[in-house]
Amino acid sequence: MTRAISLHDVSKAYTRGTRVVDRLSLDIAPGEFLVLLGPSGCGKSTVLRMIAGLEDIDEGRLFLDGEYGNDLPPSDRDMAMVFQNFALYPSMTGRDNIGFPLRIEAPGTDPAPRVDATARMLGIEDLLDRFPAQLSGGERQRVAMGRAIARHPSAFLMDEPLSNLDAKLRNHLRAEISQLTRELGVTTVYVTHDQSEAMSLGDRVAVLRGGVLQQVGSPRTVYALPENVFVAAFIGTPRINLLRGLVRAPLDGAMTISLGKQFLRLPEPLSLDHQLLRVQQGREVIVGLRSEAVRIAKPAAARTGEVALTGLVEHLEFQGHEVLVHFDTGSRPALVPELEAPRPAPGRPARRRRREGGTVLERLRERAGALRAGPVATAEAPGRPDPDPGPATATAEPRLPGDLIVRTTPDIRLRHGMQVPLLVDLAHLFVFDQHGRRICPSPDRLPDLEE
User: Fold this and answer.
1) Which of 104, 140, 243, 288 has the fewest CB atoms nearer than 10 Å to its CB?
2) Where does the signal peptide begin and end (predicted)?
3) In whole angstroms, what is the distance from residue 227 CA to residue 208 CA?
């Protein structure tokens, strides 16, 4: 039997009142594979542990199959958890590790048949008589998964189960997990910070930032229509190009988005989405272009809806089947501080004088709260003068050369310092306001994913 899980305005705070999960509402359908995705420290594992009953819910309500479950002990929730560090008993063989929870649930029952059936399902029959120290990382994770599967739970809760494995084994086990959960039809909540895992595994992806749910939807939807600049930047490889722009919409001329030394001229007649940009006249916006939205071609080869730019080659990344080209277009990059800002250097911080408005600790708390629940800020890349500072306040790490990354085929010969013509497909243009909210395509527009 599988299970429906619902979270209604759930919050969790630890010491000093800092909320690690803030008013999270999420419905998980029976048999659904939902991925909780976000950077480290965003509250993903805390949500999972609250569902499992390993953490108390401070505010809000948890419903399991429509019944109130906040106070239900973990043993009565009929869920199985797979941990990041495998959590196997070192003194037990693989057989005993898998059968241990079965012996606890039904002391008088022989667990051997279910252990053997689970081992056959996972292909680990030859590992049952080995101890964890005699197993590789991938083999230990298979045994840990077997321990969860053998219980026949109503839900699987997986907390970054593949993060300790090498890339090749991680890809292999990812496919196994996907196949197994679909065959078993069990509700699965999977926590990861790896967007490749999220996109390939989940029926839906829930993106968290600072304990706040940013967007939930199918992998294709969150990629094609990110709700804000944080989701756009977090999902996609290579990361989306984010450029600071200025909307110019004269009554007697064409609408353009200035990118610094160059501009994007919006073709007429304006599409509905581009018409809505008129209200941003004279305002700074954030322009998002994924690497596949730009191609290397001369202006004469432009298709309908494509506009020309030029770029100076600054860096080439050969990937075998493709090349990622880093161009300098004279644009002003926009960064997402939560993804780009450098971490504080280790060591004892220097003492500072108290200022008006509270102690240093109080000001740090206020800043932490703003980062968790406030608008998504952006920042200028270091080392580039900006005549129009705009809303940016954070400092960012040095990035790779260039301001625009374009994906192309390896047969196109390029070299460092070459001036190259580019064509931008405005059908794949994202525009975000100063607070990071998407304004183009229109937030009310739904993606046509059937084409």
Assistant:
1) 104
2) none
3) 12
